[in-house]
């Protein structure tokens, strides 16, 4: 809760006029407890899990030939019943694990110094902290993910997430309850190392989940703005990990590709990409000579 209730008190405390965003924040949060503000995470996560995957779901069900060329595994299709079952399971885990975890984790957030007070962080400060959060989460998640692919970790925990060999957006948070708890650690480490404002924390939680939905989308769109993020893995990178399945020792990183490259866990993926590029070139050449549709050949190649 803010130590001041009025605009005049806040400006006297800061020794300057409030910016427009600070005025909006003051009006919204002045009479709300820090715990209540922190619990906004539950609402944000519910909306993200429920709304963000919907366009991907419509694309999955539309069977549009125009969109199929962007689907990484175009021959693998889920029915509306399968997708709803996935969402229902995710929501069950949300209400019984994710939500309660958010409710009881507030003391740790206070302990590391996440603040709700004025002044608000600058845009530059938010970007720098988010960059740290993503880097720390990606590195830590990489090693935990590798552990979950050992025999015990996979059979006891991680196999649940790999039930979808061709992932969809709703399957991003689909996992064993123990995996949800374990992978909460990498998400917490960044804010613990560089604590900031609750707004930055909200953005971090939201962006991380949206990123997870994107990498599980099953579609690789050439116009996606994430194509311009250095070392960003995206759906194509993570889809290979699900395609290989339980025996996969490739593409463990959650966001970027540098860990897989440094530690040599993307060799299978890079070999496949190199092989596909060569086969596509051969198919294109042969298709043009024989009057065969290059588009149809490449779609079969992606599926096989």
From TrEMBL:
Belongs to the sterol desaturase family. The keyword Transmembrane helix applies. It comes from Vitis vinifera (Grape). InterPro entries: Fatty_acid_hydroxylase, Sterol_Desaturase_Related. The chain crosses the membrane at residues 35-59. Pfam families: FA_hydroxylase. It comes from the Eukaryota. Residues 131-265 form the Fatty acid hydroxylase domain. The keyword Membrane applies. This is Fatty acid hydroxylase domain-containing protein. Keywords: Membrane, Transmembrane, Transmembrane helix. It is found in: Membrane.
């Amino acid at each position: 809760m803010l130590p001041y209730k009025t605009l005049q008190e806040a400006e006297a405390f800061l020794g300057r006029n409030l910016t427009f965003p600070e005025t909006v924040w003051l009006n919204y949060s002045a009479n709300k407890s820090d715990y209540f503000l922190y619990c906004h995470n539950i609402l944000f996560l519910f909306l993200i899990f429920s709304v963000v995957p919907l366009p991907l779901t419509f694309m999955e069900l539309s069977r549009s030939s125009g969109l199929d060329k962007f689907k990484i595994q175009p021959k693998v299709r889920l029915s509306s019943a399968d997708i709803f079952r996935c969402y229902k399971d995710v929501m069950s885990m949300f209400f019984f694990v994710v939500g309660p975890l958010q409710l009881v984790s507030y003391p740790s957030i206070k302990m590391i110094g996440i603040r709700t007070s004025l002044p608000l962080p600058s845009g530059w400060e938010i970007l720098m902290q988010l960059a740290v959060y993503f880097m720390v989460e990606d590195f830590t998640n990489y090693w935990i993910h590798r552990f979950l692919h050992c025999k015990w970790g996979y059979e006891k925990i991680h196999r649940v997430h790999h039930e979808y060999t061709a992932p969809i957006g709703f399957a991003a948070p689909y996992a064993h309850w123990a995996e949800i708890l374990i992978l909460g650690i990498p998400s917490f480490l960044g804010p613990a190392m560089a604590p900031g404002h609750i707004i930055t924390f909200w953005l971090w939680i939201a962006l991380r989940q949206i990123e997870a939905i994107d990498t599980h989308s099953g579609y690789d769109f050439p116009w996606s703005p994430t194509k311009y993020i250095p070392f960003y893995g995206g759906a194509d990178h993570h889809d290979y990990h699900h395609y290989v399945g339980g025996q996969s020792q490739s593409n463990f990183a959650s966001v970027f590709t540098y860990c897989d490259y440094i530690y040599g866990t993307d060799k299978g993926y890079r070999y496949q990409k190199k092989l596909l590029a060569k086969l596509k070139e051969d198919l294109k050449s042969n298709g043009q000579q024989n009057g065969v549709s290059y588009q149809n050949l490449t779609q079969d190649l992606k599926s096989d």
